[in-house]
Specification:
This protein has helices at about 5-15, 65-80, 85-90, 100-115, 135-150, 165-170, and strands at about 25-35, 45-50, 50-55, 55-60, 115-125, 155-160, 175-185. The protein is an alpha+beta fold. The protein has one domain: 2-C-methyl-D-erythritol 2,4-cyclodiphosphate synthase (60s Ribosomal Protein L30, Chain: A, 2-Layer Sandwich), CATH 3.30.1330.50. The structure holds magnesium ion (MG). The site of magnesium ion has 5 residues, from strand 1 and helix 2. Magnesium ion (MG) binds near residues 30, 32, 61, 67 and 70.
Length: about 190
């Protein structure tokens, strides 16, 4: 068997994991500046992945500034080729002042479903010096899966530091990367066993 043939056969075996499915990949990114709360700064309460953190600084943003939900929203919208979160929910629209970012993500999920896609899996990386992500990870995963309407095991979340380097490393910003895989077809029913 020639090397090229082996590669093709391997690819066909992997493709069988998604029989008859069309797949789409999306990437989402967000960064929010972190400032002390008023009156010292303009930072809102710190919310990440829909979970509120008790922290001396918070995001400067028009909505609640949840960089995790913003990046997840953009990953989903990007996967289906829709306008990004800033285009759908402009930051000069007073209706979005302090808005719970779950509203933005729910709209992205609705558009994904309307296009006939379901979540394959979602991988999130949060980069910040503080707060520590690990102790709140399960809460965040539960909240994100709830908004997505999916099994919790389809969502992965990692917390990393920026090794003290640059604005993120100095605690002046939080940064989030998200990769999502969508597959065509109706959402799979949740397993309640
Ligand atoms: Mg944002």
């Amino acid at each position: 068997m020639e090397c090229g043939t082996a590669v093709i056969l391997t690819w066909m075996a992997d493709a069988s994991l998604f029989p008859m499915a069309r797949c789409r990949i999306g990437h989402g990114y967000d960064l929010h500046r972190l400032e002390p709360h008023p009156p010292e700064g303009e930072g809102r309460s710190l919310v990440l992945g829909g979970i509120r953190f008790d922290h001396p600084t918070g995001p400067v943003g028009h909505s609640d500034g949840d960089a995790v939900l913003h990046a997840v929203t953009d990953a989903l919208l990007g996967a289906i080729g829709e306008p990004d979160i800033g285009q759908l929910f402009p930051d000069d629209d007073p209706r979005h002042d302090g808005q719970d970012s779950a509203v933005f993500l729910a709209e992205a999920v609705r558009r994904v479903n309307d296009r006939g896609f379901r979540l394959g899996n979602l991988d999130i990386t949060i980069i910040c010096e503080r707060p520590k992500i690990g102790p709140r990870k399960d809460e965040m995963l539960g909240r994100i899966a709830s908004i997505l309407g999916c099994e919790r095991n389809l969502v992965n979340l990692k917390g990393k530091t920026h090794e003290g380097v640059d604005a993120v490393g100095e605690g002046r910003a939080v940064e989030v990367h998200v990769v999502v895989l969508l597959a065509s077809g109706a959402p799979q029913p949740k397993d309640h066993s």
